[in-house]
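Researcher: Predict the fold of HTH domain-containing protein.
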Amino acid sequence: MNRTDRLYALVEELRAIAPRPRSARWLASRFEVNTRTIERDIGALQQSGVPIYAEAGRTGGYCLDKAHTLPPVNLTPEEAVAMALALKHLDGTPFRAEGRSALRKLVAAMRQEDVAAARDLALRVHVLGDDTAAPMPHVLGIRRVMRIRYTDRAGTVTRREIEPLGYVGKPAHWYLIAWCRLRREIRAFRTDRIVSYSVTAEVPPPRRLRPEDLDIPYGDVEQLSLAS
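Model: Structure tokens for HTH domain-containing protein follow.
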């Protein structure tokens, strides 16, 4: 059994008996490897986001949080490649890392024969790169006041304290929507013009992003939905 198959089988073994634990020694015997290999495999799974934790004690071992894992996903190879292609368009957005993490979890939950077919198909798909994509701050999960250095259209750099509220994206640029304490109003900051930023310990007062705050003259703003 190769390592990829073993990692998949490890997750399924722990899922099958969750929330009970399996010891590293038991798993090593089951997969015919040594305990050090099992520990490395468990560490790799944890780093990829699989919710495995260790229980101490004589009857302890590794446990899987069943409520936070995916069962085997019945995606076809074509569907998996379509999702990889869609996630490729997250390059240059605040969700690039999360998209890659989601794809890894998705592939880990697929059947191995479908994974092999999807990888073979993906090798035939080529995408032209975009060298203009700039790294962006990922601040949607931040509930703190931020300090930024921002370059305006004329090239003037200002220092501001802002309260992040959300993002607006379009093909060419992404904008961070925030309450600007300098201007005392909601402003849209083009993310590639944010020179630097830091997060403070201050929790700002709650503010709601209203539809009229997104009355942007460049087109209609559509709210993202997880529904199809």
